[in-house]
Amino acid sequence: NIRFLLFVFTGKCDCPFYARIELLADKLSLNLPSFRVTKIVKQPQDWKEFTKWITEKHGWFVEESPVVWRELVDQGGKGILIGGANEFQELVAAYYGEQISIRTDEMLNVMKNNIKYKIQEDQEQQMKIINTPSPSNVVVIGAAGLGTGDFLASILNGKVFGDEMIELYLSDEVKNKNKLFELREVLEEAALPKLSRVHISDDVDECLTHAKQVVILDVIPRKGPSFSDIRIQDEWEPRSEWLIRRFLYFDKLGQKMKEKCPKSVRVLLAGNIEADTVLMEMTTPICFDVTTLHRRTKGKIPPEQIVGLVKPLELKVKAAVARHLKVHTYDVTDVVIWGNLGSSVFLDLSRSCVSCRRHFDAGVVGGSHIRLPALSVAENPQWLHKELLNELKKENSTRKSEYIGLLYENAMAECLKECWNSNQSQPNQTTSLVMISRAPSQL
């Protein structure tokens, strides 16, 4: 009750015996609906390697061209070896009563056509490989922590790097390797369209070669109480010891990046998800990290390609301004953050604008083409200047990490969009970043 027979014909393109049984196989496949053929043609120099593959795959020791076997489509399994040209012709003569009579010159013509076809096929395949862009390597260091799932999904959905395929490298400490395997499994199950492959590694060295984008999360957290006990001040690791640990880590990482990364690599230091909470003990000193990394990679990676994330705080300020002006958060632009995350920060709303004022109680209403200075339409500009940041800190101190994570992940994705100029919906807008100044002081 076999529905059809599938025969696999393999041979060298310059083999006359392969040419003979190829003609016979073509004749049978044209006249017998149940007789199907798959052909594998190899260059002479590739034949030996191919026979090794046959031995490893099927367990058949073969050397001469051609080789014919039948696939067990109806049963599964490794297939049945028929043999060479003579064995196949004997099988066809006995089973189908068919024989082939071909002159030597005809057989040689078929062989020449096979050679020509194989050369052309190899050239086309080579051109396809050359014209197909290689996947972009994106490295995420500290990937086992909070705030990676939605962020990685944004990257692998084409929202950051457009149509580029992404080869993703996830790196973390050895103790977190199981978390990385779980994350990889979820990413692969999600069928994300731009994902080429996910690599897991606890060795940063092997991740950095050919990296296009490196994202560094909360790699050296400060030792201290859990989130529920963060107000117990005397349990925190001394800040000086914490900064020494961070310096040693980023100094070593910077040396590796200088040795292995291309000059075009871009680096985003994202820190931890509490990057703007009221307790400075929990806040990652991103300015310190960026400075350390820049000094070690100086001469290889331009300073504007190593930046720190400020976007979470920027988005929260926009939301607070939007509530005050009774507009949508998306309609507030050009909020600038000055200072040092982990120490003192200052808001600069002098450039901030607002558009699309829709609220029924708003003083000024207009479309998206109208952009007004935010301070000029605010009911209480002094509150925006003096109290807004303190109010935000009070709100943030009561929020749980899992809820802050959504904002944090979106902020990372939006920051990368702006860095790679893929955020075309909001051109010519100001954003805040931690980066080294081009001035001689390099602050």
Description:
The protein contains 14 helices and 16 strands. The longest helix is centred in the N-terminal third of the chain and has 28 residues. The chain folds into two domains: 126 residues, Glutaredoxin (3-Layer(aba) Sandwich), CATH 3.40.30.10; 217 residues, L-2-Hydroxyisocaproate Dehydrogenase, Chain A, domain 2, CATH 3.90.110. The model has no long low-confidence stretch (mean pLDDT 82). Helix 5 packs parallel to helix 14. Strand 12 and strand 13 form a beta hairpin. The chain has 443 residues and is α/β, with parallel strands linked by helices. A seven-stranded mixed sheet has the order 7-6-5-8-9-10-16, with helices on both faces. Strands 2-1-3-4 form a four-stranded mixed sheet, with helices on one face. A three-stranded antiparallel sheet has the order 11-14-15.
Quick synopsis:
Helix content is 40%, strand content 17%. The chain contains 14 helices and 16 strands.
